[in-house]
Amino acid sequence: MRTKLAKGTYGYLYRNKIQAWKRAALMLSVSAVIFLAAWILHGTRENVMTVVAIVGCLPGCNQVVRAILASRYHSMESVLWEQVEAERGSLPVLYENVFTSYETNYYVDCIVVAGREIIGYSSDPGLDPAKAAEHIRSMLKNSSYKQNVNILKDQKKYLERIHALSKAETERVPFKEDDRYPGFTRDEIILHLLMAISL
Known about the structure:
The chain is of the alpha+beta class. The chain has two domains: 12-71; 78-196, no CATH class. The protein contains six helices and four strands, in the order αααβββαβαα. A four-stranded mixed beta sheet has the order 1-2-3-4, sandwiched between helices. A hairpin with a 2-residue loop joins strand 2 (105-114) and strand 3 (117-121). Helix 1 packs antiparallel against helix 2 (48-71) and helix 3 runs parallel beside helix 5. The longest helix is centred in the N-terminal third of the chain and has 31 residues, at 12-42. The protein is elongated.
């Protein structure tokens, strides 16, 4: 039996897409079975079960929309994942992030947190790195966490930056336990907030 992949892990987007389509098919097939069974039993489509089947399609249609949205994004390349894993050391990391905003969505393959630094890489050719970084920065600032956010488009520079951060001593950021997140470290809170604004 396959285990559910958590958000922020490698392969999450692919598994999420497959699961979304399976749920959509299941929900719509239940309505179809109800409709066909009632039609066969009553010999006509004009019965109360037709209404039940139609209303039952609404959650399935909602799930189809979610599946279509999930299908827009792909999992990152396994080679990049292996390279990041080799370079990051003990630095916390989130993979396959789709940060949502009112204007657009920002696909960021990988984000590494090191003290006040957040370094991300995006393979999306249409992504504006400055706007993506500003969106992430402002969302964290709204939760009272000030971070330096940098999104890179050059994979080689990104890996070099992760390597440098993993070898350097991480800046000790003054931190008082947050009542909203009891027992969490500062890095864990940052990761939690990033996952909260990601699909």
